[in-house]
Structure prediction request, 704 residues.
Amino acid sequence: MTVETLRHCLSHKKAATASGLDGVSLTDLRAMPTAALSNFVDIFTHAEATGLWPAQIVSGRVACIAKIPEPQKALDFRPITVLGLLYRCWGTFNARHIIQQLDEHLPPGLFGSRPQRFAGQVWSQLLWSIEQAYEQEIHLSGIIADIQKAFNYLPRLVVFECCALVGIPFHVLRAWAGALTIMPRRFQINGALSPPAYSNCGLPEGCALSCVGMMVIDMVYHAWMSHFFPMCQPLSYVDDWQVLMTNPGFLQPALQCLERFTQAMDLLLDRRKTHTLSVSAYGRQILREQGLDLVASDRNLGAHVQFTRLHTNKTLVARIQGAHHLWHKLKISACNYAAKVRAVRVAAWPKFLHGVPATTLSLTLFKSLRSGAMRGLRAEAAGANPMVQLGLIENSATDPHNWAIQQTMRLTRDCGQRERVEQVLAEIVAGSEAFPGNSITHTLCTRLQFLGWHINDSGRLVDLFGSFSLFEVSMAELQYRLDLQWPKVVAASTAHRRCFEGLGTCDVADTRRWLLSLDVADQALFRKVLNGTHFTQDGKMFCQEAPTDECLYCACSDSRYHRFWECTRFESLRSGLTPDVRRCICDLPEALSCSGWSMQPTTLCEWNCYFAGLPHMPIPSAMFHGDIYIFTDGSCFNQQLVNQRFAGYAVVLASCTGVYDCRGSEVLDAGHLPGILQSAIRAEVFAVLRALQIAEGSAERLFL
Prediction:
């Protein structure tokens, strides 16, 4: 580790990162001169050579984080050790390089602590395996196991021996082992620190190298299971271990083999979280006869996974039912409205809807989430529609159902195999009964159809603008298509409200821009107009706030249309309107005339269909001699107007002889930019792509 790498590591730490017991903060270290950082590097070098560390650097305080709402036992807490920043920088630097070097040698079923790996890949792979087993009538069976307090029980000697076997440098192991040997940890309880505690086993949670140690143990687990049961498929995510096999008769020996491994490693299986599964009645009968703990569904890394055709979602439901505490906290919070909306979108939905792509939820549950969010935002009122408030006035992802749909599509794009997913989608809509109604692809199909999109016989999606592949379009284009479709979903749910007539053709983005141009107080008032809140007597009469529907300012029957366009009390406010405009108002949809929603241009659909249908032109052929100098460019007309802009690109073979007059230069390719998203930056990127495709077969050097 050098001074430059130490400074780089410090610059990438979060500003709010906690300091250790040595009292040295991140601000202190960032302000240190080069000479001081050089001294710290010398400390690291000395520790790697001798295994000796200054006691202040490796001292840690243990913060116990509750794993359940009402913890009562030690196992209900997760002990996180906060070490000194210098030791954490050294550990992070070495752990990152070790993981990068080991990545290509890791088994495919190992997901924990690896770059570009996450928990969703584990349970989604399991769900797709279950789906395929039902289709091909395979007796898929498996084990789901969890290691109890894994980091605290890891045998250090075994960990270091295994780390040495996989090639981790000895100087790193020497410094790491030396730090663990002398590391005092003090438990922080109610602001007070306990006397120092030492240990001869386990790795502290909070040290980056502990992740390396757990990864190496996972490697040994995969090697062990693959050696004794070559036909099984082991999966692991840190301390969550799973085994899949197609012969349920071998499951009991496989479980015994797993238990022997944990005993040899001096680890403990958490019996409460260790279960067996089988997707077939035959397999479940065998497992029952063997006396194994058989489950029909289970919580797997936070997601609800179903192993039978019976649809359940108790994990998600239990999480949603516990949401009322958050809504109360949000309601009494002193934060402004915008901060609360952001909290709903980036904190509430990821917490309560974690793992939502794994199973479906009822519309009633989504409705309860919307109602809770409205209470938390203090936006609840008689007549206020939560779908309009959360899905149209705010970013569409603020609506829980929209958020769930987006997460389902994202997970499918990230983890699914295109050919397989599109094939299953096509078979599901064709009426195939080979796939259970609670499978992961069936869940995706249900949510796509809720949008009003349908699936053709090749598994491609079809919306207002034509067919497209879920895996081909960019996430930006998918989001654009979804945002244009969502008002139609909301309009279908609010069709019983007169004030929302024509809501399906509203221009949500234009309305939001105008709303943001108002001051904060006027924004709050106009949100009441947009979301359908009752403020006229005809609405208040039905919620028992008014005895009759008579207007407060005249003897006529009250309504939004009457209040805005007919009531004589407000005639002065309409004096600026021309007679032609007044005559047109009665023909406008009430979503515009009574609720204030801007309308889309009538040609918007045709405009988007045109660009969606533009073909990709064939790659032109070119012969090159010597170095290739290519100039690319992209431009856009009306860049600032999203609904009116269009772009083009050009690829030019530049000549070095005609610098000033372009003599010798040649246009290799030029044309319109295909695709719905028209922008200058996309045109620039597309031009570079075309240049690379043109020069792909050439052996000459390319300069762009």
Summary: Residues 465 and 609 are 5 Å apart (CA to CA).
